[in-house]
Write a structure and sequence with these properties.
There is one protein chain. The protein is mainly alpha-helical and about 80 residues long. It is built from three helices and four strands, in the order E-E-E-E-H-H-H. It has two domains: about 35 residues, no CATH class; about 30 residues, no CATH class. It is about 50% helix and about 10% strand. The strands form two sheets. A two-stranded antiparallel sheet has the order 1-2. Strands 3-4 form a two-stranded antiparallel ribbon. Strand 3 and strand 4 form a beta hairpin. The radius of gyration is 14 Å and the shape is flat.
Length: about 80
């Protein structure tokens, strides 16, 4: 498989689509981008989250519009 290697985890993916929050210039894989977003969110959000809030944050962090629509439809 031809692709690009993530500088953080070393995984080879078709394309590096996420921008690293560490330096705002390095492209990284989606998984590492999601992990950084969740870590950043947790660091800046001091209140203890409920299971609903944690799940909602994880779903929104993916940026997957279908997952977000499904979450909203099943949790409204």
């Amino acid at each position: 498989m031809n692709g690009e290697k993530c500088p953080i985890c070393g995984t080879v993916v078709a394309r590096l689509l996420a921008l690293s929050r560490i330096d705002n210039k390095t492209m990284i894989c989606d998984s590492c981008g999601t992990r950084q977003a969740l870590e950043d969110f947790a660091k800046h959000y001091q209140k203890k989250l409920s299971p609903f809030e944690r799940t909602r944050a994880q779903v929104y962090a993916t940026g997957n519009k279908y997952a977000i629509e499904n979450f909203e439809a099943t949790h409204s």
